[in-house]
Amino acid sequence: MKITETSLKGCFIIQPRLFRDERGLFFESYQQKKFESAIGKEVQFVQDNISVSKKGVLRGLHLQTGLHAQAKLVQVAHGEVLDVVVDLRPESPTFGQHFKQILSSENRTSIFIPKGMAHGFLTLSEEATFIYKCDAFYNLASESGIIYNDEDLKIDWECPIASPIISPKDKLLPTFKEFFK
Q: Which DSSP category does 67 fall into?
């Protein structure tokens, strides 16, 4: 397992070692001791979530705030997505910056997203099954986010269709500037 910090402070890419043979494939998608040693802190995951999305669905940019803020470990079990993380921690040296990575059932890559970062993804394959672990339980009152097409963040979603499929709720998310008012 190779764990590397991204351009965002505290956000890590996890690339498992794949063992292939005539039967198929085996890999560790998560190993607590290796993971915690690499990121330099303990993380207690308490909830697993799965979403299934069709091509062109854009989910995000989401986060939970305050006492219910969540760190996440995200991966794709089936299909392919463009995963995007935005650092919303004002004290961070990478505040306001974003990171993009293709996650797929082919590359088996995961991303650890620390508390205080917004997260979203765009489904590139016909369908994608997205799995993520959270270190805090979901809390509706703490739900927040940033609009996916914020002018200040300038995220290129590399969308393969004319316009992404976005939930009504996600279309109403605040801009980066509005989030910090």
A: G
Phi, psi of 18 (to 5 degrees): -95, 135
Which DSSP category does 18 fall into? P
Residue carrying the six token digits 């979403």: 51
Three-class secondary structure of residue 168 per DSSP: helix
Active site residues: 62, 132
Alpha-carbon distance 4 to 53, whole Å? Answer: 28
- Residue 26 CB partners (closer than 8 Å, separation 6+): 18, 19
CB atoms near residue 167 (< 10 Å): 12
Quick: pLDDT tens for 11-27: 999 998 888 889 988 88
Q: Is the pLDDT of residue 161 over 90?
A: no
What pTM value is reported for the model? Answer: 0.93
